[in-house]
Design brief:
With 43 residues, this protein is an all-alpha fold. It is built from 1 helix and no strands.
Length: 43
Amino acid sequence: MADNYIERHQEEYEARKEMWLRKKRHLPKTIQRNIPRPEDESL
């Protein structure tokens, strides 16, 4: 194998991971909606 093979792949992995985390942070958070329950629970 070539010299610095592991180091090069580690750097590529870190770059991909950083891009993924940056993209993940900018996604909107899902909003949990409160669905009203009927008064009569026997339905």
